[in-house]
Amino acid sequence: MSVESVARDIKEMKIQGAVTIAIAAEEALEEFIKSCQAGSRDDFLSQLRAEGRKLAEARPSAIALPNAVRAFIEKVEAINLGMPDLKEAALLAGKELIADTKDSFNELIEKGSEVVRDGQLILIHCHSSTVTGLLKKAWDKGKRFKVICTETRPSKQGFLSAKELAEHEIPTTLVVDSAVASVMPGVDMAMVGADTVLKNGDVVNKIGTLGLALAAKEFGVPMYVATQRIKFDTEGKGVDIESRPAEEILEGAELPGVEVENLVFDITKKVYFRGIITEGGVRQKW
Length: 286
Known about the structure:
The chain is an alpha/beta fold. The chain has helices spanning 3-11, 18-35, 41-56, 64-77, 85-112, 129-140, 157-167, 180-183, 209-218, 247-250, and strands at residues 121-124, 146-150, 172-175, 189-192, 196-197, 203-206, 223-226, 265-268, 275-278, 281-283.
């Protein structure tokens, strides 16, 4: 797929999940390199950077996206070759980066699956391929548990999680977002993914994560965040909390005189989490 189509699909949330987004961006840059007709090194790098900016700006709250784009371009910039050898070497570097991203994901879900225990009732929010991945990995290891998925309004990403887990034969229940506090007393563990882990350790994730964390704290339920290091804001740049179109909430309804605010993400302080799960393992402090 072209850079333009991938950027559009990311912006329109047709491609979801920070790791999936990062890999899609890396693959889009790979496709651009294949078709690039630049005649000089400088022209090639200039075009590559421009294409990278289109991708990086598609989802401002998901730092895995600009991190993946930056890593890709830095790998290419470090290749001391002229055209056309640079193009071939860049394609190889891109394939290596994509493989590394996938390997770190597999390492994370392997280590994260150890957190899951037999007989648990686990509450998850939104759709995180990392969270569903480690739950499926735990199930494949013979652990037996149940999962509650929030609906995750307004885009209903929770439907994706519920469908994916049910197809893996994991007992799964879907609840509306406002039921979180009501079901929490029976929950053994809550888990979410992350769009960004800020430099101070706080977590940017789908709107509703903060409310879930507050309910978990109230009822003494341990909560974990599972995420790859590619989502860490190591430079301390922070992220913009984006708002999306009101139509996603209204769904065709008309409310004259009513202002609709469709915030997509919130920020949850790291003190609300029992630990963080990365490809490096489970840490109680970070």
